[in-house]
Amino acid sequence: MSELKKFRLINKIEGFSYLFLLFVAMPLKHMAGFPIATKIAGMIHGVLFIGFVYQLIMATEEVPFSKKEAFIFFVASLIPFGSFYIEAQCKEKK
Predict the structure, then answer these.
(1) What's CA 38's distance to the chain center, in Å?
(2) What is the reported pLDDT for 94?
(3) Is 1 helix (H, G, I), strand (E, B) or coil?
(4) How close are the terminal C-alpha atoms of the chain, in Å?
(5) Is residue 87 within 8 Å of 12, Cβ to Cβ?
(6) Which positions ≥6 away from 58 have C-beta within 8 Å?
(7) What separation in angstroms does the CA of 21 have from each of 10, 16, 65, 71?
């Protein structure tokens, strides 16, 4: 599997874990009094985010993404739904 394909895969998984954390685990914590939801979802998302950053670095060496593109991808990963933007940009790199 190419580094770009691995990056696209981890991007999707990390993006959905972020959305799960924001829109499922956080409401469970604050509205249902279930704080363990954010601890579990947050830990999973954190590990996936580290994998995302690692795979971004690896894909940057293979594709190569410009430093500007890599920086934009990193910033987009911090924004909810930013992974969809990253996916759209990566489809063009095939």
Answers:
(1) 17
(2) 67
(3) coil
(4) 13
(5) yes
(6) 3, 6, 7
(7) 16, 9, 29, 23
